[in-house]
Amino acid sequence: MRAFLGVLACSLTVLSVHGLYSASDDVVELNPSNFNREVIQSDSLWLVEFYAPWCGHCKSLAPEWKKAATALKGIVKVGAVDADQHNSLGGQYGVRGFPTIKIFGANKQKPEDYQGGRSGQAIVDAALNALRSLVKDRLGGKAGGSDYGKQSGGGAGNKKDVVELTDDNFDRTVLDSDDVWMVEFFAPWCGHCKNLEPEWKAAATEVKEQTKGKVKLGAVDATVHQGLESRYGIRGFPTIKIFRKGEEPEDFQGGGRTRSDIVARAMDLYSDNIPPPELQEVIDEDVLKKTCEDYQLCIISVLPHILDTGASGRNSYLEVMRTMADKYKKKTWGWLWTEAGAQMDLESSLGIGGFGYPAMAAINARKMKFALLRGSFSETGIHEFLRELSVGRGSTATVGGGALPKINTVEPWDGKDGVLPMEDDIDLSDVDLDDLGKDEL
Q1: Stated pTM of the model
Q2: Averaged over 11-25, what is the pLDDT?
Q3: What distance in Å separates the CA atoms of residue 169 and residue 177, rounded to the nearest whole number?
Protein backbone atom coordinates (compact mmCIF):
# COMPACT_ATOMS: atom_id res chain seq x y z
CA MET A 1 0.00 0.00 0.00
CA ARG A 2 1.41 3.32 -1.02
CA ALA A 3 2.42 5.65 1.80
CA PHE A 4 0.85 9.02 1.73
CA LEU A 5 3.01 12.05 2.42
CA GLY A 6 0.75 14.25 4.49
CA VAL A 7 -1.25 15.70 1.62
CA LEU A 8 -3.57 13.41 -0.28
CA ALA A 9 -5.99 15.08 -2.64
CA CYS A 10 -9.29 13.59 -3.60
CA SER A 11 -11.03 13.50 -6.95
CA LEU A 12 -12.29 16.67 -8.50
CA THR A 13 -15.76 15.17 -8.45
CA VAL A 14 -17.16 15.69 -4.97
CA LEU A 15 -20.26 14.78 -3.04
CA SER A 16 -21.95 16.79 -0.34
CA VAL A 17 -22.28 14.54 2.74
CA HIS A 18 -22.24 14.78 6.51
CA GLY A 19 -19.16 14.52 8.72
CA LEU A 20 -17.35 11.20 8.99
CA TYR A 21 -17.20 10.97 12.80
CA SER A 22 -19.74 11.06 15.61
CA ALA A 23 -19.78 11.47 19.39
CA SER A 24 -19.83 7.67 19.80
CA ASP A 25 -16.38 7.36 18.20
CA ASP A 26 -13.10 7.71 20.10
CA VAL A 27 -12.08 10.32 17.54
CA VAL A 28 -12.33 13.81 19.06
CA GLU A 29 -14.18 16.21 16.76
CA LEU A 30 -12.22 19.45 16.57
CA ASN A 31 -13.24 22.92 15.36
CA PRO A 32 -12.06 26.52 15.73
CA SER A 33 -13.89 26.86 19.06
CA ASN A 34 -12.19 23.95 20.82
CA PHE A 35 -8.95 23.37 18.91
CA ASN A 36 -6.74 25.60 21.02
CA ARG A 37 -8.17 24.31 24.29
CA GLU A 38 -8.04 20.63 23.33
CA VAL A 39 -4.84 20.49 21.25
CA ILE A 40 -2.62 23.54 21.62
CA GLN A 41 -2.96 23.86 25.40
CA SER A 42 -2.62 20.11 25.93
CA ASP A 43 0.44 18.25 27.18
CA SER A 44 -0.73 15.18 25.27
CA LEU A 45 0.51 14.02 21.89
CA TRP A 46 -2.17 14.53 19.25
CA LEU A 47 -2.75 13.02 15.81
CA VAL A 48 -5.15 15.26 13.90
CA GLU A 49 -6.76 14.47 10.56
CA PHE A 50 -7.97 17.34 8.39
CA TYR A 51 -10.63 15.95 6.07
CA ALA A 52 -13.52 16.79 3.75
CA PRO A 53 -16.76 14.75 4.02
CA TRP A 54 -16.99 14.36 0.24
CA CYS A 55 -13.43 13.05 -0.13
CA GLY A 56 -13.16 9.41 -1.20
CA HIS A 57 -9.74 8.91 0.42
CA CYS A 58 -11.11 10.36 3.67
CA LYS A 59 -14.05 7.94 3.63
CA SER A 60 -11.64 5.04 3.14
CA LEU A 61 -9.46 6.27 5.98
CA ALA A 62 -12.31 6.83 8.48
CA PRO A 63 -12.72 3.22 9.75
CA GLU A 64 -8.94 2.85 10.17
CA TRP A 65 -8.74 6.21 11.92
CA LYS A 66 -11.47 5.08 14.35
CA LYS A 67 -9.63 1.81 15.03
CA ALA A 68 -6.42 3.70 15.78
CA ALA A 69 -8.28 6.12 18.07
CA THR A 70 -9.74 3.24 20.06
CA ALA A 71 -6.39 1.45 20.32
CA LEU A 72 -4.63 4.63 21.45
CA LYS A 73 -7.32 5.73 23.91
CA GLY A 74 -5.73 7.08 27.08
CA ILE A 75 -2.28 7.04 25.46
CA VAL A 76 -2.36 9.38 22.45
CA LYS A 77 -5.18 11.74 21.49
CA VAL A 78 -6.70 11.25 18.03
CA GLY A 79 -8.82 14.03 16.51
CA ALA A 80 -10.40 15.11 13.24
CA VAL A 81 -11.25 18.48 11.70
CA ASP A 82 -13.86 18.90 8.97
CA ALA A 83 -11.62 21.32 7.05
CA ASP A 84 -14.23 21.74 4.32
CA GLN A 85 -16.51 23.36 6.90
CA HIS A 86 -13.73 24.96 8.99
CA ASN A 87 -11.43 26.06 6.17
CA SER A 88 -9.85 28.82 8.25
CA LEU A 89 -8.49 26.19 10.65
CA GLY A 90 -7.20 24.08 7.77
CA GLY A 91 -5.61 27.12 6.18
CA GLN A 92 -3.90 27.96 9.48
CA TYR A 93 -1.95 24.71 9.19
CA GLY A 94 -1.30 24.82 5.44
CA VAL A 95 -3.82 22.14 4.51
CA ARG A 96 -4.08 22.00 0.71
CA GLY A 97 -5.59 18.58 0.13
CA PHE A 98 -7.49 15.82 1.90
CA PRO A 99 -6.86 13.93 4.03
CA THR A 100 -3.93 15.68 5.69
CA ILE A 101 -2.65 14.32 9.00
CA LYS A 102 -0.55 16.37 11.42
CA ILE A 103 1.26 15.22 14.58
CA PHE A 104 1.11 17.79 17.37
CA GLY A 105 3.96 16.85 19.69
CA ALA A 106 6.45 18.80 21.79
CA ASN A 107 6.06 22.02 19.82
CA LYS A 108 2.35 22.44 19.25
CA GLN A 109 2.96 25.53 17.11
CA LYS A 110 4.95 23.49 14.56
CA PRO A 111 3.18 20.16 13.99
CA GLU A 112 4.84 17.49 11.86
CA ASP A 113 3.33 15.93 8.75
CA TYR A 114 2.33 12.28 9.13
CA GLN A 115 4.16 10.16 6.54
CA GLY A 116 2.92 6.66 7.26
CA GLY A 117 0.41 4.25 5.76
CA ARG A 118 -3.36 4.38 5.94
CA SER A 119 -4.02 1.26 8.01
CA GLY A 120 -4.95 1.39 11.67
CA GLN A 121 -1.74 -0.50 12.55
CA ALA A 122 0.46 1.95 10.63
CA ILE A 123 -1.21 4.91 12.36
CA VAL A 124 -0.76 3.33 15.80
CA ASP A 125 2.89 2.52 15.08
CA ALA A 126 3.59 6.10 14.01
CA ALA A 127 1.84 7.46 17.10
CA LEU A 128 3.86 5.25 19.46
CA ASN A 129 7.11 6.22 17.72
CA ALA A 130 6.24 9.90 18.11
CA LEU A 131 5.34 9.28 21.75
CA ARG A 132 8.69 7.58 22.42
CA SER A 133 10.45 10.57 20.88
CA LEU A 134 8.46 12.97 23.06
CA VAL A 135 9.24 11.01 26.25
CA LYS A 136 12.93 10.78 25.32
CA ASP A 137 13.06 14.55 24.87
CA ARG A 138 11.50 15.05 28.28
CA LEU A 139 14.00 12.69 29.89
CA GLY A 140 16.74 14.74 28.25
CA GLY A 141 15.38 17.92 29.82
CA LYS A 142 13.74 19.32 26.70
CA ALA A 143 10.33 20.98 26.98
CA GLY A 144 7.52 18.48 26.76
CA GLY A 145 4.35 19.85 25.28
CA SER A 146 3.61 23.45 24.40
CA ASP A 147 3.95 26.12 27.05
CA TYR A 148 2.67 28.70 24.57
CA GLY A 149 -0.66 30.18 25.49
CA LYS A 150 -1.15 28.10 28.65
CA GLN A 151 -3.31 29.87 31.19
CA SER A 152 -2.09 29.85 34.77
CA GLY A 153 -4.50 31.70 36.94
CA GLY A 154 -5.50 33.72 33.90
CA GLY A 155 -1.96 34.99 33.37
CA ALA A 156 -1.25 33.70 29.86
CA GLY A 157 -0.35 36.02 27.04
CA ASN A 158 1.51 39.28 26.92
CA LYS A 159 -0.32 42.36 28.09
CA LYS A 160 1.64 44.42 25.54
CA ASP A 161 -0.12 42.53 22.74
CA VAL A 162 -3.37 44.27 23.75
CA VAL A 163 -3.02 47.78 22.31
CA GLU A 164 -4.19 50.53 24.64
CA LEU A 165 -6.47 52.81 22.64
CA THR A 166 -7.47 56.38 23.50
CA ASP A 167 -9.42 59.31 22.13
CA ASP A 168 -6.13 60.66 20.79
CA ASN A 169 -4.71 57.59 19.02
CA PHE A 170 -7.83 55.66 17.96
CA ASP A 171 -8.28 57.08 14.45
CA ARG A 172 -4.60 56.88 13.59
CA THR A 173 -4.11 53.41 15.06
CA VAL A 174 -7.38 51.69 14.15
CA LEU A 175 -9.35 53.52 11.47
CA ASP A 176 -6.36 54.32 9.26
CA SER A 177 -4.92 50.81 9.56
CA ASP A 178 -5.05 48.20 6.81
CA ASP A 179 -5.28 45.52 9.51
CA VAL A 180 -8.44 44.20 11.13
CA TRP A 181 -9.07 45.30 14.71
CA MET A 182 -11.08 43.70 17.51
CA VAL A 183 -11.61 46.36 20.17
CA GLU A 184 -12.93 45.85 23.69
CA PHE A 185 -14.64 48.79 25.37
CA PHE A 186 -14.46 48.23 29.14
CA ALA A 187 -14.94 49.84 32.52
CA PRO A 188 -12.41 49.12 35.33
CA TRP A 189 -15.18 48.49 37.87
CA CYS A 190 -17.02 45.99 35.62
CA GLY A 191 -16.92 42.39 36.90
CA HIS A 192 -17.48 40.88 33.45
CA CYS A 193 -14.62 43.01 32.10
CA LYS A 194 -12.31 41.67 34.82
CA ASN A 195 -13.26 38.12 33.84
CA LEU A 196 -12.63 38.89 30.16
CA GLU A 197 -9.26 40.58 30.71
CA PRO A 198 -7.07 37.43 30.97
CA GLU A 199 -8.90 35.81 28.05
CA TRP A 200 -8.48 38.95 25.93
CA LYS A 201 -4.79 39.19 26.83
CA ALA A 202 -4.11 35.52 26.05
CA ALA A 203 -6.06 35.72 22.80
CA ALA A 204 -4.14 38.85 21.73
CA THR A 205 -0.82 37.03 21.98
CA GLU A 206 -2.07 34.01 20.06
CA VAL A 207 -3.85 36.04 17.38
CA LYS A 208 -0.74 38.17 16.82
CA GLU A 209 1.31 35.06 16.05
CA GLN A 210 -1.31 33.14 14.09
CA THR A 211 -2.27 36.06 11.82
CA LYS A 212 1.24 37.57 11.58
CA GLY A 213 -0.14 40.78 13.05
CA LYS A 214 -2.90 41.16 10.45
CA VAL A 215 -5.60 40.98 13.14
CA LYS A 216 -5.00 43.07 16.25
CA LEU A 217 -6.72 43.29 19.63
CA GLY A 218 -7.15 46.59 21.44
CA ALA A 219 -8.88 47.91 24.53
CA VAL A 220 -10.51 51.23 25.41
CA ASP A 221 -11.24 52.38 28.96
CA ALA A 222 -14.59 53.87 28.09
CA THR A 223 -14.92 55.60 31.47
CA VAL A 224 -11.88 57.74 30.59
CA HIS A 225 -12.25 58.06 26.82
CA GLN A 226 -15.87 59.06 26.73
CA GLY A 227 -15.57 60.53 23.24
CA LEU A 228 -15.14 57.02 21.85
CA GLU A 229 -17.84 55.67 24.14
CA SER A 230 -20.32 58.21 22.75
CA ARG A 231 -19.10 57.91 19.15
CA TYR A 232 -19.74 54.16 19.02
CA GLY A 233 -22.86 54.07 21.15
CA ILE A 234 -21.44 51.94 23.96
CA ARG A 235 -24.28 51.10 26.35
CA GLY A 236 -22.82 48.26 28.40
CA PHE A 237 -19.54 46.64 29.39
CA PRO A 238 -17.66 44.88 28.01
CA THR A 239 -18.60 45.66 24.40
CA ILE A 240 -16.47 44.25 21.59
CA LYS A 241 -16.50 45.77 18.12
CA ILE A 242 -14.74 44.78 14.91
CA PHE A 243 -13.16 47.46 12.71
CA ARG A 244 -12.14 47.04 9.07
CA LYS A 245 -10.75 49.89 7.01
CA GLY A 246 -13.43 51.78 5.11
CA GLU A 247 -16.31 49.84 6.68
CA GLU A 248 -18.75 50.50 9.49
CA PRO A 249 -17.78 48.74 12.73
CA GLU A 250 -19.67 45.57 13.56
CA ASP A 251 -20.49 43.97 16.88
CA PHE A 252 -18.77 40.78 18.00
CA GLN A 253 -21.57 38.29 17.40
CA GLY A 254 -22.15 34.74 18.59
CA GLY A 255 -20.04 32.38 20.62
CA GLY A 256 -18.60 32.94 24.06
CA ARG A 257 -15.84 35.15 25.31
CA THR A 258 -13.15 32.63 26.12
CA ARG A 259 -9.74 32.82 24.51
CA SER A 260 -10.63 30.06 22.04
CA ASP A 261 -13.85 31.87 21.03
CA ILE A 262 -11.96 35.10 20.45
CA VAL A 263 -9.18 33.38 18.52
CA ALA A 264 -11.69 31.50 16.36
CA ARG A 265 -13.42 34.76 15.39
CA ALA A 266 -10.07 36.41 14.71
CA MET A 267 -9.04 33.56 12.40
CA ASP A 268 -12.30 33.93 10.46
CA LEU A 269 -11.59 37.65 10.08
CA TYR A 270 -8.04 36.88 8.97
CA SER A 271 -9.32 34.44 6.35
CA ASP A 272 -11.76 37.07 5.08
CA ASN A 273 -8.99 39.65 4.86
CA ILE A 274 -6.26 37.63 3.14
CA PRO A 275 -5.26 38.88 -0.33
CA PRO A 276 -6.48 36.97 -3.39
CA PRO A 277 -4.10 34.44 -4.92
CA GLU A 278 -1.66 35.72 -7.53
CA LEU A 279 -2.77 35.45 -11.15
CA GLN A 280 0.24 34.12 -13.07
CA GLU A 281 1.02 33.76 -16.78
CA VAL A 282 2.21 30.31 -17.86
CA ILE A 283 5.66 31.28 -19.16
CA ASP A 284 7.51 28.07 -18.33
CA GLU A 285 7.08 24.58 -16.93
CA ASP A 286 7.91 25.61 -13.36
CA VAL A 287 4.95 28.01 -13.16
CA LEU A 288 2.44 25.36 -14.24
CA LYS A 289 3.95 22.54 -12.20
CA LYS A 290 4.33 24.48 -8.97
CA THR A 291 0.86 26.01 -9.11
CA CYS A 292 -1.00 22.86 -10.07
CA GLU A 293 0.89 20.60 -7.68
CA ASP A 294 0.79 22.98 -4.70
CA TYR A 295 -2.95 23.68 -4.85
CA GLN A 296 -6.06 21.54 -4.66
CA LEU A 297 -7.17 22.87 -8.05
CA CYS A 298 -5.54 25.13 -10.60
CA ILE A 299 -7.82 27.33 -12.69
CA ILE A 300 -6.31 27.97 -16.13
CA SER A 301 -7.62 30.41 -18.74
CA VAL A 302 -6.56 30.47 -22.38
CA LEU A 303 -7.11 34.02 -23.59
CA PRO A 304 -7.37 35.21 -27.21
CA HIS A 305 -4.20 36.27 -29.02
CA ILE A 306 -3.15 39.84 -28.26
CA LEU A 307 -3.72 40.81 -31.92
CA ASP A 308 -7.37 39.82 -31.53
CA THR A 309 -8.09 41.80 -28.36
CA GLY A 310 -5.42 44.42 -27.84
CA ALA A 311 -4.22 45.31 -24.35
CA SER A 312 -7.58 46.69 -23.20
CA GLY A 313 -9.46 43.54 -24.20
CA ARG A 314 -6.93 41.27 -22.53
CA ASN A 315 -6.94 43.34 -19.36
CA SER A 316 -10.71 43.07 -19.18
CA TYR A 317 -10.44 39.27 -19.23
CA LEU A 318 -7.69 39.34 -16.61
CA GLU A 319 -9.80 41.60 -14.41
CA VAL A 320 -12.64 39.08 -14.51
CA MET A 321 -10.19 36.39 -13.39
CA ARG A 322 -8.82 38.56 -10.57
CA THR A 323 -12.34 39.28 -9.37
CA MET A 324 -13.20 35.59 -9.27
CA ALA A 325 -9.87 34.69 -7.63
CA ASP A 326 -10.73 37.19 -4.89
CA LYS A 327 -14.25 35.78 -4.56
CA TYR A 328 -12.89 32.25 -4.12
CA LYS A 329 -9.72 33.18 -2.21
CA LYS A 330 -10.62 30.95 0.75
CA LYS A 331 -10.33 27.95 -1.54
CA THR A 332 -6.94 26.36 -1.98
CA TRP A 333 -6.83 27.08 -5.71
CA GLY A 334 -4.12 28.48 -7.98
CA TRP A 335 -4.91 30.80 -10.90
CA LEU A 336 -3.09 30.81 -14.26
CA TRP A 337 -3.52 32.14 -17.79
CA THR A 338 -1.85 31.77 -21.17
CA GLU A 339 -2.26 33.20 -24.64
CA ALA A 340 -3.97 31.18 -27.36
CA GLY A 341 -1.37 29.29 -29.36
CA ALA A 342 1.45 29.80 -26.87
CA GLN A 343 0.98 26.43 -25.17
CA MET A 344 -0.57 24.13 -27.76
CA ASP A 345 0.22 20.93 -25.83
CA LEU A 346 -1.65 22.34 -22.85
CA GLU A 347 -4.64 23.29 -24.98
CA SER A 348 -4.68 19.86 -26.60
CA SER A 349 -4.52 18.04 -23.25
CA LEU A 350 -7.60 19.99 -22.12
CA GLY A 351 -9.53 19.57 -25.35
CA ILE A 352 -9.53 23.29 -26.09
CA GLY A 353 -7.67 22.88 -29.36
CA GLY A 354 -7.29 26.12 -31.26
CA PHE A 355 -10.76 27.72 -31.03
CA GLY A 356 -13.40 29.00 -28.63
CA TYR A 357 -11.31 31.62 -26.82
CA PRO A 358 -11.39 32.68 -24.08
CA ALA A 359 -11.56 29.23 -22.47
CA MET A 360 -11.18 28.04 -18.87
CA ALA A 361 -10.38 24.70 -17.24
CA ALA A 362 -10.11 23.56 -13.63
CA ILE A 363 -7.45 20.88 -13.14
CA ASN A 364 -6.91 18.46 -10.27
CA ALA A 365 -3.26 17.60 -10.94
CA ARG A 366 -3.18 14.83 -8.35
CA LYS A 367 -5.96 12.93 -10.10
CA MET A 368 -5.20 14.33 -13.57
CA LYS A 369 -8.85 15.25 -13.98
CA PHE A 370 -10.22 18.48 -15.41
CA ALA A 371 -13.49 20.26 -16.05
CA LEU A 372 -14.18 22.88 -18.73
CA LEU A 373 -16.15 26.09 -18.46
CA ARG A 374 -19.19 25.63 -20.68
CA GLY A 375 -20.86 28.97 -19.95
CA SER A 376 -19.78 32.52 -20.65
CA PHE A 377 -16.37 33.86 -19.69
CA SER A 378 -17.88 36.39 -17.29
CA GLU A 379 -18.18 36.79 -13.54
CA THR A 380 -21.60 35.17 -13.65
CA GLY A 381 -20.55 32.31 -15.92
CA ILE A 382 -17.33 31.55 -14.05
CA HIS A 383 -19.05 31.81 -10.65
CA GLU A 384 -21.63 29.25 -11.74
CA PHE A 385 -18.87 26.98 -13.08
CA LEU A 386 -16.81 27.12 -9.88
CA ARG A 387 -19.85 26.87 -7.62
CA GLU A 388 -20.93 23.70 -9.41
CA LEU A 389 -17.47 22.23 -8.91
CA SER A 390 -17.56 23.15 -5.23
CA VAL A 391 -20.72 21.13 -4.63
CA GLY A 392 -19.68 18.17 -6.77
CA ARG A 393 -21.64 18.84 -9.92
CA GLY A 394 -20.38 19.11 -13.47
CA SER A 395 -18.61 16.60 -15.67
CA THR A 396 -14.89 15.86 -15.60
CA ALA A 397 -12.44 14.19 -17.97
CA THR A 398 -8.90 12.84 -17.79
CA VAL A 399 -6.09 15.20 -18.77
CA GLY A 400 -4.77 14.14 -22.17
CA GLY A 401 -1.82 11.79 -21.79
CA GLY A 402 -2.55 11.34 -18.09
CA ALA A 403 0.10 13.88 -17.07
CA LEU A 404 0.76 17.59 -17.18
CA PRO A 405 1.79 18.46 -20.75
CA LYS A 406 5.05 19.88 -22.00
CA ILE A 407 5.21 23.65 -21.53
CA ASN A 408 7.11 26.02 -23.79
CA THR A 409 9.25 28.76 -22.31
CA VAL A 410 7.87 32.07 -23.58
CA GLU A 411 8.38 35.74 -22.93
CA PRO A 412 5.83 37.21 -20.49
CA TRP A 413 3.32 39.66 -21.85
CA ASP A 414 4.66 43.23 -21.66
CA GLY A 415 1.22 44.74 -21.11
CA LYS A 416 1.15 46.39 -24.54
CA ASP A 417 -0.92 45.98 -27.69
CA GLY A 418 0.30 43.40 -30.15
CA VAL A 419 2.36 44.32 -33.21
CA LEU A 420 2.04 42.55 -36.54
CA PRO A 421 5.25 40.76 -37.54
CA MET A 422 7.39 42.71 -40.01
CA GLU A 423 7.87 41.10 -43.44
CA ASP A 424 11.34 41.10 -45.01
CA ASP A 425 11.95 44.10 -47.32
CA ILE A 426 12.21 43.21 -51.03
CA ASP A 427 14.92 44.92 -53.09
CA LEU A 428 13.34 45.98 -56.44
CA SER A 429 16.40 47.78 -57.80
CA ASP A 430 17.21 45.01 -60.30
CA VAL A 431 13.65 44.55 -61.58
CA ASP A 432 12.82 45.95 -65.05
CA LEU A 433 9.46 47.54 -64.44
CA ASP A 434 8.75 47.62 -68.22
CA ASP A 435 8.67 43.82 -68.24
CA LEU A 436 6.06 43.60 -65.50
CA GLY A 437 2.76 42.31 -66.76
CA LYS A 438 4.23 40.60 -69.87
CA ASP A 439 3.54 36.91 -70.31
CA GLU A 440 6.58 34.73 -70.29
CA LEU A 441 6.70 32.30 -73.21
Answers
A1: 0.46
A2: 61
A3: 12
